[in-house]
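re: ur question from yesterday

yeah so i grabbed the chain u mentioned. its 190 aa long if i counted rite. heres the sequnce exactly as i have it in my notes:
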Amino acid sequence: MARWQPDAPGRLAAAALDLFEEHGYENTTVIEIAERAGLTKSTFFRYFPDKREVLFGGGTVTGLLAEGIASAPPEAGPLDAVADALDALGRTFFAADRREFSRRRQAVLNANTELLEREALKRIDLAASMIEALDRRGVPGLTARVAAKLGMLVWEIAYDRWIDTDNRDDFGTLARQALAEVRAAGAVRW
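ran it thru and got these structure tokens back, copy pasting raw so excuse formatting
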């Protein structure tokens, strides 16, 4: 085994993505992922409970969203607080150097129903985390739920655009654009 190198979770995620692309998700084992990353199986399990989780950030995004909502200006409304959190997420997690990884990751997810189901569950958890963060700001329950659900819609639109190979805008800009579009759609008379 090579001498210690930093960022074991990142190395494991990169190795997993490579192997999932090469052999398919179903045909890749935790041992193969760990070996490709130059780590042991026990190190893998120190960071991830199973091979599905290796592509889902290990709760990092949930914490960043909650912190972003908490640090929004006190006068920010619920949806603006969520937008501030998405801006922060764009600066810290969805930075330009992660765009290609994210594109590849999404292609692997799209090719595997089990991973798409896991992603859907993660998004439910993210919305719940936003609701809790808004609740801590004193936002009433129904308003917090609506803001979080709209925030997830904004995220999904921004993320899809961010990983599009024709797009070069940063995630925060795309999230603000998507928020404006969602707000405009909500103003449409039905």
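noticed a couple things. DSSP finds nine helices and no strands in the chain. also The two ends are 63 Å apart (CA to CA).
anyway ttyl
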